[in-house]
Amino acid sequence: MRAMASLRRRTAAALLAVGKLAPAARAGTAEVAISGFAFDPPTLTIRAGTAVTWTNRDEEPHTGSSTDGRIDSPALDGDDRFSLAFTEPGSYACFCRLHPHMTGRVIVTP
Questions:
Q1: Is the pLDDT of residue 40 over 60?
Q2: Which of 54, 59, 63, 86 satisfies CB 3.0 to 4.6 Å to 97 for a cystine?
Q3: Pair 106, 44: CB distance under 8 Å
Q4: What does the pLDDT look like over 63-79, one tens digit per residue?
Q5: List of domains in the chain
Q6: What is residue 21's predicted lDDT score, i.e. its pLDDT?
């Protein structure tokens, strides 16, 4: 019995290592509204694997961008959306390229 369980664990580990078996998803989606020339919430904490969707609720165009290029939406007109999955833990500062005073942060935990 132990030998069979050990074999299953080793097989699963080998499949994960070569990308044939994906680990179970632990995270879903999160929303950031762009409203009143601000990101709401201004700081969002999520788990790795979560997709964040920015939705522009203003009439003016906005972007979700970061200086390192990891976050790089096109200009979003009113009610346009942009989604990005965050797979690596870390802290990601974002801003609007068209209105640089608009800033936010996405914190990704393991």
A1: yes
A2: 63
A3: yes
A4: 999 989 999 999 999 99
A5: 25-109 (2.60.40.420)
A6: 38
pLDDT in tens, 94-105: 999 999 999 999
As given in the structure block, the two tokens for residue 29 are: 């989606």
Residue 61's alpha-carbon distances to 10, 55, 64, 75, 92, in angstroms, are 51, 11, 11, 6, 22
Spatial distance between the Cα atoms of 104 and 110, rounded to a whole number of angstroms? 20
The answer to whether the bond into 100 is cis (omega within 30° of 0) is no
Chain length of the chain: 110
Q: Which two tokens stand for residue 110?
A: 């393991």
Q: Looking up tokens 């694997």, which residue turns up?
A: 49
From first CA to last CA, the distance across the chain in angstroms is: 33
For residue 18, name the pLDDT band (cuts at 50, 70, 90). Answer: very low
Question: What distance in Å separates the CA atoms of residue 89 and residue 36, rounded to the nearest whole number?
Answer: 29
Find all residues with CB under 8 Å of 5, minimum gap 6, and list them. Answer: none
Whole-model pTM: value is 0.74
